[in-house]
């Protein structure tokens, strides 16, 4: 009898706890960026946080809930998990040459937002991007598949002055902005999440020289 009574008395407390949990707001984009920037500074300084990868792997065997989805370039020198000093399960990373938002990339981001409840998408370009250089170089790229890589970047090449190689970075940054702006236009799922305040998009630039990631927008 007393056990039943205790159970029913506990129900309101459980309900209140669940309601409070449901009302908890996800961290803002600025808060998420602050955390990412702190990790990046650890990476830049060569002092990464200690990680128990074995424990992380076991804990994540059946589930994942990455707060941040990253769309970045496939360049082997640009590894988001390392650049932000993150462990397993922290980032949902989508990589394409030139970080372009093709249907496969967008579908992957939709999955992260819709099913894994990521609240931030970080679009990150980088210094000396080969895809941007190829797009702005104006030459033949060699195949239809490679053409599909450079074509989305071409519009950003107007920022480049052939006499000033350093202006290639302007094309990289402009392309990052174009990709970020295109996500809501190309995806109803992402647009809906943004309209409801459940998703923010951050634009960033990675320096190969220093390892530092700079927030653009």
From TrEMBL:
UniProt cross-references to InterPro entries, sorted A to Z: Carbonic_anhydrase (IPR001765), Carbonic_anhydrase_CS (IPR015892), Carbonic_anhydrase_sf (IPR036874)
Catalytic activity field: hydrogencarbonate + H(+) = CO2 + H2O
GO biological process, one term: carbon utilization
Signal peptide: 1-22
PANTHER family: CARBONIC ANHYDRASE (PTHR11002), CARBONIC ANHYDRASE 2 (PTHR11002:SF79)
Protein name in UniProt: carbonic anhydrase
Cofactor: Zn(2+)
Residues that, per the record, bind Zn(2+): 73, 75, 126, 129
Keyword Lyase attached: yes
Source organism: Koribacter versatilis (strain Ellin345)
Pfam families: Pro_CA
PROSITE patterns the UniProt entry points to: PROK_CO2_ANHYDRASE_1
EC number: 4.2.1.1
GO MF term set: carbonate dehydratase activity; zinc ion binding
Gene3D superfamilies found in the cross-reference section: Carbonic anhydrase
Keywords, comma-separated and alphabetical: Lyase, Metal-binding, Signal, Zinc
Keyword Lyase applies: yes
UniProt lineage: Bacteria, Pseudomonadati, Acidobacteriota, Terriglobia, Terriglobales
Membership in a protein family: Belongs to the beta-class carbonic anhydrase family.
Comment on bound cofactor: Binds 1 zinc ion per subunit.
